[in-house]
Write a structure and sequence with these properties.
alpha/beta
Length: 211
Protein backbone atom coordinates (compact mmCIF):
# COMPACT_ATOMS: atom_id res chain seq x y z
CA UNK A 1 0.00 0.00 0.00
CA UNK A 2 1.51 3.32 -1.07
CA UNK A 3 1.03 5.83 1.73
CA UNK A 4 2.84 8.98 0.62
CA UNK A 5 5.40 10.39 -1.80
CA UNK A 6 8.33 12.81 -2.18
CA UNK A 7 11.36 12.23 0.04
CA UNK A 8 12.19 14.71 2.76
CA UNK A 9 15.55 16.46 2.56
CA UNK A 10 17.52 16.79 5.81
CA UNK A 11 17.49 20.30 7.24
CA UNK A 12 21.22 20.42 8.13
CA UNK A 13 22.94 20.00 11.47
CA UNK A 14 23.22 22.50 14.37
CA UNK A 15 26.58 24.15 14.85
CA UNK A 16 29.03 23.22 17.61
CA UNK A 17 29.01 20.83 20.54
CA UNK A 18 28.70 17.11 21.12
CA UNK A 19 25.55 17.30 23.24
CA UNK A 20 22.19 18.94 22.77
CA UNK A 21 19.55 19.67 25.42
CA UNK A 22 15.84 18.82 25.28
CA UNK A 23 15.10 22.54 25.14
CA UNK A 24 17.38 22.98 22.12
CA UNK A 25 15.84 19.94 20.41
CA UNK A 26 12.38 21.45 20.81
CA UNK A 27 13.55 24.56 18.93
CA UNK A 28 14.50 22.55 15.84
CA UNK A 29 12.20 22.06 12.82
CA UNK A 30 9.99 18.98 12.99
CA UNK A 31 10.86 16.44 10.31
CA UNK A 32 9.33 13.20 9.12
CA UNK A 33 9.78 10.90 6.17
CA UNK A 34 7.56 12.05 3.33
CA UNK A 35 8.62 9.52 0.73
CA UNK A 36 7.10 6.23 -0.37
CA UNK A 37 5.95 3.83 2.34
CA UNK A 38 4.98 0.24 1.64
CA UNK A 39 2.86 -1.43 4.32
CA UNK A 40 3.50 -5.16 3.97
CA UNK A 41 0.80 -7.58 5.12
CA UNK A 42 0.72 -10.50 2.65
CA UNK A 43 3.17 -13.18 1.49
CA UNK A 44 3.12 -11.73 -2.04
CA UNK A 45 3.97 -8.25 -0.73
CA UNK A 46 6.80 -9.73 1.38
CA UNK A 47 8.38 -11.33 -1.70
CA UNK A 48 8.11 -8.13 -3.74
CA UNK A 49 9.59 -6.03 -0.93
CA UNK A 50 12.47 -8.36 -0.13
CA UNK A 51 13.39 -8.63 -3.82
CA UNK A 52 13.65 -4.83 -3.93
CA UNK A 53 15.70 -4.78 -0.71
CA UNK A 54 18.22 -7.29 -2.06
CA UNK A 55 19.54 -4.59 -4.37
CA UNK A 56 20.24 -2.15 -1.52
CA UNK A 57 23.56 -1.59 0.24
CA UNK A 58 22.36 0.57 3.20
CA UNK A 59 19.08 0.27 5.09
CA UNK A 60 17.66 2.04 8.11
CA UNK A 61 16.43 -0.51 10.66
CA UNK A 62 13.96 -0.45 13.53
CA UNK A 63 11.15 -2.45 15.11
CA UNK A 64 8.01 -1.56 17.06
CA UNK A 65 6.44 -3.64 19.82
CA UNK A 66 3.17 -3.31 21.69
CA UNK A 67 4.03 -1.69 25.04
CA UNK A 68 3.64 -3.76 28.20
CA UNK A 69 2.11 -1.97 31.19
CA UNK A 70 1.83 -4.95 33.57
CA UNK A 71 4.66 -6.63 35.47
CA UNK A 72 5.90 -9.71 33.64
CA UNK A 73 3.95 -8.88 30.50
CA UNK A 74 5.89 -9.17 27.25
CA UNK A 75 4.96 -9.04 23.58
CA UNK A 76 6.75 -10.07 20.41
CA UNK A 77 7.59 -7.35 17.85
CA UNK A 78 4.63 -6.21 15.78
CA UNK A 79 6.43 -4.21 13.11
CA UNK A 80 9.76 -4.40 11.28
CA UNK A 81 10.90 -1.26 9.46
CA UNK A 82 13.54 -1.25 6.73
CA UNK A 83 14.30 2.00 4.89
CA UNK A 84 16.04 2.25 1.53
CA UNK A 85 16.95 5.54 -0.13
CA UNK A 86 13.57 5.68 -1.88
CA UNK A 87 11.10 3.62 0.17
CA UNK A 88 10.38 2.61 3.75
CA UNK A 89 9.00 -0.92 4.09
CA UNK A 90 6.82 -1.68 7.11
CA UNK A 91 6.35 -5.42 7.70
CA UNK A 92 3.35 -6.21 9.92
CA UNK A 93 4.83 -9.27 11.58
CA UNK A 94 1.61 -10.56 13.07
CA UNK A 95 0.36 -11.34 9.56
CA UNK A 96 3.62 -11.87 7.66
CA UNK A 97 5.62 -13.68 10.31
CA UNK A 98 9.36 -13.78 9.66
CA UNK A 99 9.67 -15.89 6.48
CA UNK A 100 12.92 -16.98 4.87
CA UNK A 101 13.04 -14.02 2.48
CA UNK A 102 12.99 -11.49 5.35
CA UNK A 103 15.50 -13.53 7.35
CA UNK A 104 17.80 -13.66 4.31
CA UNK A 105 17.81 -9.85 4.18
CA UNK A 106 18.61 -9.65 7.90
CA UNK A 107 21.41 -12.20 7.43
CA UNK A 108 23.00 -10.60 4.36
CA UNK A 109 26.37 -9.18 5.40
CA UNK A 110 26.73 -7.00 2.29
CA UNK A 111 23.64 -4.96 3.26
CA UNK A 112 24.34 -2.50 6.10
CA UNK A 113 21.37 -2.30 8.49
CA UNK A 114 21.74 0.76 10.74
CA UNK A 115 19.77 1.34 13.93
CA UNK A 116 20.13 2.42 17.56
CA UNK A 117 21.03 -0.55 19.81
CA UNK A 118 19.86 -3.14 17.25
CA UNK A 119 20.91 -6.13 19.40
CA UNK A 120 17.80 -5.78 21.57
CA UNK A 121 15.50 -5.61 18.53
CA UNK A 122 17.25 -8.58 16.93
CA UNK A 123 16.87 -10.69 20.06
CA UNK A 124 13.14 -9.99 20.04
CA UNK A 125 12.86 -10.78 16.33
CA UNK A 126 14.61 -14.10 16.95
CA UNK A 127 11.75 -15.01 19.29
CA UNK A 128 9.57 -15.16 16.17
CA UNK A 129 11.97 -17.25 14.08
CA UNK A 130 15.68 -18.11 14.44
CA UNK A 131 18.21 -16.43 12.15
CA UNK A 132 21.84 -15.28 12.20
CA UNK A 133 21.93 -11.48 11.85
CA UNK A 134 24.77 -9.89 9.88
CA UNK A 135 25.60 -6.43 8.60
CA UNK A 136 24.08 -4.56 11.55
CA UNK A 137 25.58 -1.26 12.74
CA UNK A 138 24.80 0.34 16.12
CA UNK A 139 24.35 4.09 15.67
CA UNK A 140 24.81 4.64 19.41
CA UNK A 141 28.25 3.01 19.21
CA UNK A 142 29.16 5.14 16.18
CA UNK A 143 28.14 8.20 18.20
CA UNK A 144 30.21 7.19 21.25
CA UNK A 145 33.28 6.76 19.06
CA UNK A 146 32.80 10.38 17.97
CA UNK A 147 32.35 11.70 21.53
CA UNK A 148 28.65 12.37 20.93
CA UNK A 149 26.81 12.14 24.22
CA UNK A 150 23.28 12.05 22.79
CA UNK A 151 22.89 8.43 21.74
CA UNK A 152 19.13 7.97 21.48
CA UNK A 153 17.47 8.35 18.11
CA UNK A 154 15.82 11.70 18.88
CA UNK A 155 18.98 13.26 20.30
CA UNK A 156 21.11 11.99 17.44
CA UNK A 157 18.65 13.27 14.85
CA UNK A 158 18.81 16.70 16.48
CA UNK A 159 22.57 16.88 16.95
CA UNK A 160 23.70 15.23 13.73
CA UNK A 161 20.92 16.07 11.24
CA UNK A 162 19.56 19.27 12.80
CA UNK A 163 15.94 18.09 12.95
CA UNK A 164 13.40 17.14 15.60
CA UNK A 165 11.52 13.87 15.22
CA UNK A 166 8.29 13.12 17.04
CA UNK A 167 8.14 10.28 19.57
CA UNK A 168 4.45 10.66 20.46
CA UNK A 169 3.37 7.34 18.90
CA UNK A 170 6.06 5.28 20.63
CA UNK A 171 3.76 3.75 23.27
CA UNK A 172 0.75 3.26 20.99
CA UNK A 173 -0.67 -0.22 20.28
CA UNK A 174 1.45 -1.59 17.44
CA UNK A 175 -0.40 -4.91 17.39
CA UNK A 176 -3.55 -3.41 15.87
CA UNK A 177 -4.46 -4.93 12.46
CA UNK A 178 -4.77 -1.43 10.98
CA UNK A 179 -2.17 1.16 11.89
CA UNK A 180 -3.13 4.82 12.11
CA UNK A 181 -1.54 7.39 9.77
CA UNK A 182 0.33 8.75 12.82
CA UNK A 183 1.81 5.30 13.56
CA UNK A 184 2.81 4.82 9.93
CA UNK A 185 4.55 8.21 9.76
CA UNK A 186 6.28 7.57 13.10
CA UNK A 187 7.55 4.13 12.14
CA UNK A 188 8.71 5.23 8.70
CA UNK A 189 10.49 8.28 10.12
CA UNK A 190 12.44 6.22 12.66
CA UNK A 191 13.76 3.90 9.94
CA UNK A 192 14.50 6.76 7.52
CA UNK A 193 16.37 8.87 10.09
CA UNK A 194 18.42 5.82 11.11
CA UNK A 195 19.70 5.50 7.55
CA UNK A 196 20.38 9.25 7.35
CA UNK A 197 22.26 9.18 10.65
CA UNK A 198 24.50 6.37 9.45
CA UNK A 199 25.44 8.34 6.34
CA UNK A 200 26.05 11.53 8.34
CA UNK A 201 28.06 9.80 11.08
CA UNK A 202 30.33 8.24 8.47
CA UNK A 203 31.35 11.77 7.52
CA UNK A 204 32.35 12.65 11.11
CA UNK A 205 35.84 11.53 12.19
CA UNK A 206 36.13 9.22 15.17
CA UNK A 207 37.66 10.85 18.24
CA UNK A 208 41.26 10.14 19.14
CA UNK A 209 42.20 8.89 22.61
CA UNK A 210 42.41 11.66 25.18
CA UNK A 211 39.79 13.88 23.53
Amino acid sequence: MLVSSEPLVSQGRPSGGRKISKEAINELPLARWQGAVQLITTAEEVEQATQALQGCTILGFDTETRPAFKKGQKFKPSLLQLASAETVYLFQLQTTGLPESIRATLEKRSIVKAGVAPDFDLLNLQSIAPFSPAGFVDLARMARLRNIRNQGLRGLAALVCGVRISKTARTSNWSKPELTPQQIHYAATDAWISRELYLQLLELPAATKGQ
